[in-house]
Amino acid sequence: MSGHDHGDHEDHSELGELDVRVRALETILAAKGYVDPAALDILIDTYQTKIGPRNGARVVARAWVDPKFRAWLLEDATAAIGSLGYGGRQGEHMVAVENTADVHNLVVCTLCSCYPWSVLGLPPAWYKSTAYRARAVRDPRGVLADFGLVLPAQTEVRVWDSTAEIRYLVIPRRPAGTEALDEAALAALVSRDAMIGTAVVAPPADAG
Q1: pLDDT digits (tens, 9 = 90+) for 48-77
Q2: Number of Cβ atoms within 10 Å of the Cβ of 176
Q3: pTM of the full predicted structure?
Q4: Taking the CB of the first residue and of the last residue of the chain, which one, N or C, has fewer CB atoms within 10 A?
Q5: DSSP letters of 72-93?
């Protein structure tokens, strides 16, 4: 497993307590009529599943179509990602790891929930769960199978342990049948889970 000492992670290890506080605040605001809980849920879901991960998807798509950017991303992900306007808190020090025909990468944070918000949006609940954080290291193939991803036996699975200092972004393999797609269309294919490593990018429905 790759990774480093988590060091000071005071703003990552208390997500459970933070969730409780947020829910309490939401309850108070809703009771006073300041917020509509349903509208708030929609807003959070939009950021978590649509807006946030779209940043990372654009990074991946650019790497697929631009060899120079891909090389830069693998050499200095923080700078390359920053050149597209994505950065800031939770994404100060990024490392990109690339899936190939022989290697599949999986990202976890074993001690807390370190996660690159600037490119992936809000972390999914399962990423913060004790079960995922423990099993991803101990049985990565089993975890991937739980997500419906069964890799060939000869494929090496590399697990990367995020820390308060370093966050990882998986560059998934570009699917076949996408040669004619432009960068925007390619980005639309890339999911948050593929950039964590619990999924692969499927080809478009009309690819062949």
Answers
A1: 555 568 899 999 999 999 999 999 999 999
A2: 9
A3: 0.77
A4: C
A5: HHHH-HHHHHHTTT--STT-SS
